[in-house]
């Protein structure tokens, strides 16, 4: 599968021997995405939703088309898709947007599995409102389940926020089941799901999950940096105070109170990242062309290979973070080595053009809970091959020779 | 040039001044959370002179080798001299250049040392 796929990614032309294993940080960009963005700037560069001339119409339609693609991709309606600058900004748009909604006697439920970007905004909202921050634990295998989150939910829970897939373990949480149990405890609780590491790896359906908000970034999905998506139920979006009022958000600026537009328009102040949004649309087209099932099978096969090769090369010196059940994992494998610090592994691999991540991975709560100071993370995408894994293992052995032997 | 030169690897594998002092006149801890590095340093100061110094902790080869090399460098020097050390001096002692991302690994020991001296000289 995906035999000639590297020809779609220009970075491999520039660096043919690149072994890129950090796609959970950001994915490489296919030619089609770059072309779509370039085409906007070269052929119909103009502002959206403002001009009355054909070029402006073309730009407006391109953004509208991208919004529809994103809506179909996450299983939501176009009106619920808000473009912002990053997934982090999408979460802050919700957390700060709820500043007047959350009261002192409320509580906010998050989990220790979260990336700092889905942890700190809630900690900040708790500080600003006086609402209690409750942190759900993962089970011994690293999963969130209904027994971890729902006991923390009560009548006063205003929002529950958790990740569909951990950026450290790659484990897939049973999002739909968790949401059902949360709704049983409190049907009015808002629910936000971070799908940054899930989008493009497993099927997403906001409607089926019944989530109020989903957030993700374009750049982990073959799209450009600088675009994040907040996908919300229209009625849930309407609860948010806009933290970014200004041009494009208003019907009548002189009324008191100001008469704002509805849905996404109310929350998208300022000229959006038009090229980036068009690029995200092209990225979704690219992904749809690959087929999510094919992507998943490819990634599962390589993850199995990483497990077996690490085991063969290092035995018990290597510990995988989280369950090794590959059916419940995406394309992320984090591990520690008893005799090599993650930074040393990552740096020595980097000297051989092999890119992995090392450190606390913006997930201090999870590392703290697992009593790990730092871990090394391999994350895969469609352009990775068995040869990449062989090179990785070969150079990890070489690193061991340098550092330990 | 690889970061992992013989000098670094030698000090990483065979750290000098490793351990703790039974009666330090000053001690300090420093951590680098994003890397997961932790250092503890004990110093024994007499008449402003660093008579002895020990470090312990966990971290990458760069942070541990830097701690070993730094303790060796400041032993016998005055607290004043040690407090005057700057990041560029650490790089000179290490004999390598560090990228922005690795600089904090190299400088953790300097931070720990300065904290220990500040506590001592209070």
Polypeptide structure, described:
The complex is a heterodimer of chains A (405) and B (122). Chain A has 405 residues and is α/β, with parallel strands linked by helices. Chain A contains 15 helices and 15 strands. Chain A has helices at 11-14, 31-43, 54-74, 87-97, 120-129, 146-149, 175-185, 206-209, 234-237, 263-267, 274-290, 292-314, 342-350, 364-370, 386-403, and strands at 19-20, 81-84, 107-111, 132-136, 157-163, 190-194, 213-217, 228-232, 250-252, 259-260, 318-320, 332-337, 354-355, 357-359, 375-379. In chain A, the strands form four sheets. Chain A has a seven-stranded mixed beta sheet, sandwiched between helices. In chain A, strands 11-12-15-14 form a four-stranded antiparallel beta sheet, covered by helices on one side. Chain A has a two-stranded parallel ribbon with strand order 1-13. In chain A, helix 8 (206-209) links the parallel strand 6 (190-194) and strand 7 (213-217). The longest helix of chain A has 23 residues, at 292-314. Chain A is globular. In chain A, 50% of the residues are buried. The model of chain A has no long low-confidence stretch (mean pLDDT 95). Chain B is 47% helix and 22% strand. Chain B is globular and about 40 Å long. Chain B has a single domain (3-121), classed as Sufe protein. Chain: A, CATH 3.90.1010.10. A three-stranded antiparallel beta sheet of chain B has the order 1-2-3, covered by helices on one side. Chain B has helices at 6-13, 61-74, 79-83, 87-94, 100-121, and strands at 26-32, 37-46, 49-58. In chain B, a hairpin with a 2-residue loop joins strand 2 (37-46) and strand 3 (49-58). Chain B has 122 residues and is an alpha+beta fold. The chains are: A alpha/beta (405), B alpha+beta (122). The A-B interface holds A 341-344, 347-348, 351, 359-360, 364, 367, 372-374, 402-403 and B 2-4, 9, 12, 33-38, 58-62, 102, 105.
């Amino acid at each position: 599968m995906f035999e000639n796929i590297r020809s779609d990614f220009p970075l491999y032309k520039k660096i043919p021997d690149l072994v890129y294993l950090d796609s959970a940080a950001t994915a490489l960009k296919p030619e089609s995405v770059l072309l779509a963005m370039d085409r906007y700037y070269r052929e119909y560069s103009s502002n959206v939703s403002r001009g009355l001339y054909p070029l402006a119409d073309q730009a407006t339609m391109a953004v509208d088309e991208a919004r529809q693609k994103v809506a179909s991709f996450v299983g939501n309606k176009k009106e619920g898709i808000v473009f912002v600058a990053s997934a982090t900004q999408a979460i802050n748009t919700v957390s700060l947007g709820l500043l007047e909604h959350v009261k002192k006697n409320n509580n906010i439920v998050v989990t220790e599995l979260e990336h700092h970007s889905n942890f700190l905004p809630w900690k900040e909202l708790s500080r600003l409102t006086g609402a209690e921050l409750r942190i759900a634990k993962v089970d011994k295998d690293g999963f969130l389940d209904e027994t971890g989150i729902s006991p923390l939910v009560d009548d006063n829970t205003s929002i529950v926020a958790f990740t569909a897939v951990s950026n450290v373990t790659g484990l897939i949480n049973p999002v739909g089941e968790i949401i059902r149990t949360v709704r049983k405890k409190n049907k009015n609780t808002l629910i936000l799901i971070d799908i940054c590491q899930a989008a493009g790896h497993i099927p997403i359906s906001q409607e089926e999950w019944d989530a109020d908000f989903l957030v993700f970034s374009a750049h982990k999905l073959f799209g450009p940096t600088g675009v994040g998506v907040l996908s919300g139920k229209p009625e849930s979006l309407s609860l948010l105070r806009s933290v970014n009022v200004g041009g494009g958000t208003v019907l009548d600026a002189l009324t008191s109170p100001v008469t704002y537009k509805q849905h996404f328009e109310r929350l998208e102040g300022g000229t959006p990242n038009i090229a980036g949004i068009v690029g995200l649309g092209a990225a979704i087209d690219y992904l749809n062309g690959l087929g999510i099932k094919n992507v998943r099978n490819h990634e599962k096969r390589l993850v199995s290979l990483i497990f077996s090769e690490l085991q063969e090369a290092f035995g018990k010196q290597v510990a995988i973070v989280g369950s090794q059940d590959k059916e419940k994992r995406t394309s992320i494998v984090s591990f520690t080595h008893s005799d090599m610090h993650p930074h040393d592994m990552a740096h020595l691999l980097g000297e051989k053009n092999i890119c992995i991540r090392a450190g606390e991975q913006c997930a201090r709560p999870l590392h703290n809970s697992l009593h790990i100071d730092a871990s090394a993370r391999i994350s895969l995408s469609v352009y990775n091959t068995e040869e990449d894994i062989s090179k990785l293992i070969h150079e990890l052995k070489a690193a061991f020779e340098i550092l330990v032997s | 040039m690889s970061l992992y030169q013989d000098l670094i690897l030698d000090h990483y594998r065979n750290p000098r001044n490793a351990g703790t002092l039974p009666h330090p006149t000053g001690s300090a801890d420093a951590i680098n959370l994003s890397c997961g590095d932790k250092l503890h340093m004990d110093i024994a100061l007499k008449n402003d002179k660093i008579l002895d110094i020990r470090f312990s902790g966990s971290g990458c080869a760069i942070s541990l080798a830097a701690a070993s090399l730094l303790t060796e460098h400041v032993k016998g020097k005055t607290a004043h001299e040690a407090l005057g050390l700057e990041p560029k001096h650490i790089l000179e002692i290490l004999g390598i250049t560090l990228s922005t991302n690795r600089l904090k690994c190299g400088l953790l020991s300097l931070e720990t040392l300065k904290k220990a001296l500040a506590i001592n000289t209070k």
